[in-house]
Amino acid sequence: QVQLVESGGGLVQPGGSLRLSCAVSGYTLDYYAIGWFRQAPGKEREGVSCISSSDGSAYYADAVKGRFTVSRDNAKNTVYLQMNRLKPEDTALYYCAAEPQRKMTVRAMCVFKTFLSWGQGTQVTVSS
User: Residues 105, 57, 38, 102: what is their CA dihedral angle, to the nearest 10 degrees?
Assistant: First the structure.
């Protein structure tokens, strides 16, 4: 059974950094695109960044472009989201998700949230 477990969230001051991890078990990452999503109270879940299974190409939402970096370590079955220069508006519950990448681009998968396996989330709070 596929399991995704996020970690690394916490409370950080504006301008600070956090690195989220998504540990995947139950299958190997090689053929799966991985997405990071977030949901703030009263808002819809949105795609933050997604990374492809094949060439490591990534999509970033405009709100995080230049500040967040997604990476994957298939040997460790883990995907990371490095978040720098955090802002209060980044406060949300962050989820990772996995889905075999077939014919869709990673951008489309992220925008349309075409992921079926989800973790439980890790809270990120940016506040002074």
Answer: 30
Q: Across the strands, what pairs with 46?
A: 38
* C-alpha to C-alpha distance for 108 and 42, rounded to whole angstroms: 24
Between the CA of residue 107 and those of 41, 65, 99, 104, 125, what are the distances in Å? 24, 13, 13, 8, 26
pLDDT tens for each residue of 73-121: 989 999 999 999 999 999 999 999 999 988 889 999 999 999 999 999 9
Beta pairing partners, 78:
23, 73
Decide: 94 and 81 in contact? Cβ < 8 Å. Answer: yes
Confidence of residue 1 (pLDDT cuts 50, 70, 90): confident
**122-126 and 10-12 strand pairing:** parallel
- 65 burial level (CB within 10 Å; 0-12, 13-18, 19+): exposed
Residue given tokens 């600070």 in the structure block: 16
Pick the closest to residue 97 from 83, 84, 115 (CA basis).
Answer: 115
